[in-house]
């Protein structure tokens, strides 16, 4: 019998992993022995968690936990099938209706994750389904124009479509040049409100001006901005005031809300069609019902208690000032996503390990997630972190900076 490993030699997995290990770019995923709170436990080691994307800490809020348990008893723990085959709970309907209220859109469709929402949207906008004589359509001629820094799910989603191009990051001038060249085509422009690696904010209004001038459909991935930015008292309010002009708006609930799930809102007939055409709705299950109910509950909490986010943003602003004071090179846009430039790709994993050994868990990015030798540490302070925990991290970071000279 041929050994299974030898069957895979032609795919190069073994040499690929070996190359990652040789360049200090590989580490095993962590298996937690505790909930993913502001502190976590790995084996016998307790770590301050600066990597978690559920940064508002609702996952450890007793009121939220009680709501989740009550929703489990009311709705059960499973959807037991796809939306069209089995149906979904009233909780899903509440989430979709409230998201429409918040975004000003006609209809919304929720997905099990933000990644599935993005993949499903792109598939729906560029697919052929059935025949025109039998309720069919053919949109394979769609041209997708994406910001070059879009999330993996968006870049991956257009790979199967021959007509896709990228415009320079946050560059409406180049986007306009592309649209002028493609006049007459069916075009979908895709960008994000806030970018997850560098925390950059899109010039939302200007990009949408360009789309409207050339009759292009617009899709904004608002995963990182949803219910954080928009109110007039918060940063970037001027840009987020234009978000409702986008044809479609998507979010991932894993950030501000802190629970897994995604959603897209837009014109009603398009969203109805997405039930069939996305593929990531009709061929898989939806958000678990108690999660959907808790998402709805947390969205209301964020709207009704704005001080939760206002206070968190003040906490992050102070954190950035402290990082600058110890000589860190930070991402220029002061969103809640704080990235510390390390530079050398081969330094960043040892830096991560150095912080880990001192009791702090962080996320690192290196090529190909970011430009070559533009490696960075991404820090997401949790609303529940104490001043002592933040002070301890700053001291650990100072020591690691000295060790690796970044």
From TrEMBL:
Q: Name the Pfam families for this protein.
A: Aminotran_1_2
Q: Name one GO molecular function term.
A: 8-amino-7-oxononanoate synthase activity
- The segment(s) forming the Aminotransferase class I/classII large domain are 48-397
- Show the InterPro entries listed in the entry: Aminotransferase_I/II_large, AON_synthase_class-II, PyrdxlP-dep_Trfase, PyrdxlP-dep_Trfase_major, PyrdxlP-dep_Trfase_small
**Which co-factor is required?**
pyridoxal 5'-phosphate
SUPFAM superfamilies membership: PLP-dependent transferases
Q: Which UniProt keywords apply?
A: Aminotransferase, Pyridoxal phosphate, Transferase
Gene Ontology biological process: biotin biosynthetic process
- The name on file for this protein is Pyridoxal phosphate-dependent aminotransferase family protein
Organism encoding this protein: Ktedonosporobacter rubrisoli
